[in-house]
Amino acid sequence: MPPRAWYAASDAARLSLHGTWRFRLATTATAHDESFARPDFDDSQWEDLRLPGHWPLKGHGAPAYTNTAYPFPVDPPRVPDENPTGDHRRVFDLPGDWGEGPAVLHFGGVESCARVWLNGQELGHFKGSRLPHEFEIGQLLRPRGNVLAVRVHQWSSGSYLEDQDQWWLPGIFRNVSVHRRPRGSVVDHFVHAGFDHLTGTGTLRVECEPAGRVTVPALGLDLATGESATAPVRPWTAERPHLYDGELITAGERIPLRIGFRTVRVEDGLLKVNGRRILLRGVNRHEFHPRYGRTLGPEAMRHDLVLMKRHNINAVRTSHYPPHPAFLDLCDELGLWVVDECDLETHGFAQQGWRGNPVDDERWEPALLDRARRMVERDKNHPSIVLWSLGNECGTGRGLSAMAAWMRERDPSRPLHYEGDRSCADTDVYSRMYADHTEVERIGRRAEEALDDPELDARRRQLPFLLCEYAHAMGNGPGGLSEYQRLFERYERCQGGFVWEWIDHGLRQRTPDGGVFHAYGGDFGEELHDGNFVCDGLVFPDRVPSPGLVEFKKVVEPVRIEEVPGGDGATCAVRITNLHDFADLGHLTFVWQYAVVGQSRGHGWLEVPAVGPGESAEVTLPRPPAPEDGAGTGEAWWTVQALLAADTPWAEAGHEVAWGQMPAPVLPPPAPPATVRAAPRRGEGNVIVLGPGTFDATSGALRYLDGVELVGPRLDVWRAPTDNDEAAPWQPGPRPASEWRRLGLHRMRHRVDAVEAGADALVVRTRIAPAATDLGLRTVYRWTAGPAVLRLEVAVEPEGDWPGPLPRLGVTMAVCGSLGLAEWFGGGPGEGYPDTGAAARVGRWSMPVDALQTPYVRPQENGARPQVRWAQLTRGDGSGLRVEGDPHFSFTARRWSVEELAAARHTTDLTPGDRLWLHLDHAQHGIGSQSCGPGVLPQHRLEVAPARFSFALSTLE
Prior knowledge:
single chain, 957 residues, twelve-stranded antiparallel beta sheet, eight-stranded parallel beta sheet, 11 helices
């Protein structure tokens, strides 16, 4: 049947066929004949299969992951004989009040090719996995005992168009249903609802076959289909997604409408909605569930969108296919800009030099146009959709031009997107993926590299720019978000983009002993796979936010709160800037808190005017509360928060939208009593005693602190490489982790040159270096002590011509595993690194050591808390170890060593030991996003250079 607009419900009956089907799996497409489609076929020996779903996730076969490579020989349109084929049967009865007349059998999504029979009659076959297909079946239905038979092939010619960087998961994974279509019911309808920002009016026109009437009670509208009406309206935007309830009435059906008035245009070189430039704070979203694959229920969809809204995300690119239509309904309701992308990607042909690419082969043009039509017709009535996307990573070709021409003719109200053609010949926006910060700035100035065709070059320079993919969120990261966001705000042409991506595609698995981990490519015996490249999201597979999502929320917050310089020292003023595109600040309340050394000393409401979008206001904070009885001395900070003033559909009143911190004048503590430095002395055995510390006289290593056994500290430069350290093999320049291993930083050797006990200090001179090179780090540890404190000063001098940065620079020590509670004053509560620390706020934080760990699907460096002033590890009775740093330091504590962390493939490979490994870092190398995007920016690189830092160690009782 021809494609048509989707709607969730009407007064025409629908029958869901979800539930238990009978199922048989074969290894080839021709293993069985078609007799299974006969109504009297005996399927008693078959197995049960719950649908919708993917059979590899139900115990039949196995999933497989590739990024770009086709997992079969590239010989279009042919596929191999090894073609897993699932036969499905379902017997169903019609409801007693169903009646007679036309009916439609609807398939929401089947991967990748299906043949369909009803009551022994073949209805046809279809391809296009993430798009709906329907068959007229009214004449075949009977009241009871209808037999629906569906044969699904994993591979088909359509698979060449669906190489979309995800698990290959065949099956009937979206809804299957029967729709009654009474005579006079809606064949198709198209809602046109534009908004004129100059007059504040909306114009509504609904096309419908057959003709009918449209009512919108809130606007007092009752008009015939095909007619236009204009009225004052509240427009729809992602910030204020106002929808008007209406109804479409024909002779045979009544359909509820949810109408959003908005107009999308590219004008003045900008993408505008309702006359204003918009800034996309977006994510790419695959449909994924760790147990059910691409089968998502409404609860999971709503959970995703609520989580996005709570983290200041305002846009979604449906990578790389149209989502379940219920997701778009929720985008309309909750408010997100949507780039709806066609079910099309041929990335695997890049490995063949794009030879035989279907989008440049006229024989494939009907299939491409079919996919374009099915997307546009299904989704055309959603106000949230502001761009149609032709597909992803398909190279270039005449097929894309044909798709673009058809889309423009059918729906001129939405601009077109496609990234893969740098000439932008078929698009209305200039789109790039993973352009680095320097390139984005050039594009912002409209000074990008010129095209060979002057006419196309001039046209492209007038287009708005967006990053359809950037900031690859694989493992620990992404870094560099703040720098991207400042470019988007500085250059109006740069209208934001979409982080890759929303969720890690890890499949939930159990170990034999009951442990739970998330599997990735290669875990199912695939002969060809791309490892954990499928786990690159801002939320973990179980939809728990990663530190990257928390960072993104802070970076893209729509209200900026920052200090106004030039205060008199006793007062502080803040500048509050509204970065919304449409909303003023009237929906927010502002609160302040004054804290000293992380302890609150006062809080209250802050009066902030309802400034409009793009405007700022300066507000003076109250005078700091006076210390009580001498308490409250030390480092002081103001924190100002912007909170929702009232409940919304996605968060309750009091939800934090934005925050900022400003330092307050330090309240000096009382002068400490004068102390006399302890002198080193020889103890019994081969030890040196210095204050509370006991050292090995030969190595100079600290062994005990006030009787507490320690191992270390000693200089450490290695970290378990992150996915971004490992980097993508196609990236230009060196891959950091490979370079570090080449230099031997993971196998550094420590040599003691001297242990010198002076009058008031113990000095240990060492050299740290890898084998097979003359590179080294001369390191001097200088220990001094008071009665209860041991102080360590570390001086590092590099030797040799170091070719690149270090992973980290600090000291590592092992302590007793019973010190299971961490408390610190500094950045938190989550992890942070040089280019991922925007979300770390200064405070006093406390949590179990085990909670400090970030469970990335592939274990790697994680859990560092930045800008720490002091940290302590304690037992339940309060005893433990305290560390103070000068300057501020980063600390990490975990129950396994760096070597164990680096060797692990899954979280279940990490076994807690009886010691804690404590890392006190003077500096760390940044994170970047080189797993697919740019590397670490120069200002966040840990270059090899002389360094000085110190720590004070003491015990707690």
